[in-house]
Amino acid sequence: MINVGIFCGGYSSEFEISIKSASMILENLPKDEYNAFLVRVNEEGWFADYQGESAEVSPIDFTFTLKNGEQLKIDLAHVYIHGDPGENGKLQAYFEMKKLPFLNSSALSSELSFDKWFCNQFLRGFDIKVAESQLLLKNSSYSTQEIGERLGYPLFVKPADSGSSYGISKVYAHEDLQKAIDDAFAEGNTVVCEAFLKGTEVTCGVYRNDSGVVPLPCTEIVSESDFFDYDAKYLGKSQEITPARISDKLTKEIQDLTVEIYQLLQMRSLARVDFMIVEDKPYVIEVNTTPGFSSESLVPKMLKCAEISIGDFWKEIYAFERKQFGV
């Protein structure tokens, strides 16, 4: 059987969410094909959870040794870290260099889609609609007055180079803007200020199997919070309606656009694209190469609507990716 290490945890504020996502994937992988286990990543190292033991994984040859002396080697890595160092492509770059086959998008695709500013500017170059925005660099000068005048209020302030749901603020007045920027800089080195888009928020999952790139049903998000923040995402403070309450024509347009973005960014495995529909026109909010996959997450709800079991879903993705790597 193939030894699969599902890399989870990481260095970001969403450490525990990543472990929940990876655990749900692990539970649904076919046991007769894959000898799968979690590999928890933290700043001390990589640690495989294997048959009740925690064994340190060598970053040189991807092996680990159990207490009884048995040594195992990871044949295939599945990167499911929200944030640094997985969603931003760092692990993928290392695996590419060491020629370890892995699931999830490539280093380049992950890094580009992870950065909210660079990703949206890239998509804008293909005439894909995104919000007006301004990039701020740490320790550089900027004028909060000019930002407010240019983008208007309310506006959003987000860490541009962080996959976390932390550090995001909706700002209604100039006197609150500086604190929002400071909070965002606490999560990353770059910050993006974005004009507010008033409309209906929807999201669409997408993946690749032997038949091609497959979009999932769209989900509409109605947050009890002021926007789809951490509490709305993970603490149940939102309505997530699948399929979204939009026309068939608009659903098809968003699904086609999601597939186009998936291909433009050369993504692999699973991804999700978030949109705001303004006057029947979809604007991209952000792209996720490692969307949440816990029981509270959006993609499992899309799969349920499409009548695709979680086990079959990952089985299809794994089968396709294995063929690409010859594993």
From TrEMBL:
Pathway membership: Cell wall biogenesis; peptidoglycan biosynthesis
Pfam families linked to this entry: Dala_Dala_lig_C (PF07478), Dala_Dala_lig_N (PF01820)
Alphabetized SUPFAM superfamilies for the sequence: Glutathione synthetase ATP-binding domain-like (SSF56059), PreATP-grasp domain (SSF52440)
Reaction catalyzed: 2 D-alanine + ATP = D-alanyl-D-alanine + ADP + phosphate + H(+)
Keyword Acetylation carried by entry: no
Required cofactor names: Mn(2+); Mg(2+)
Binding-site residues for Mg(2+) 2, renumbered to this chain: E286, N288
Sites where the protein binds Mg(2+) 1: D274, E286
Keyword Transferase: no
Active site per UniProt: E14, S164, S297
UniProt-recorded name of the protein: D-alanine--D-alanine ligase
Taxonomic source organism: Brumimicrobium oceani
The organism's taxonomic lineage, starting at the top: Bacteria, Pseudomonadati, Bacteroidota, Flavobacteriia, Flavobacteriales
Name of encoding gene: ddl
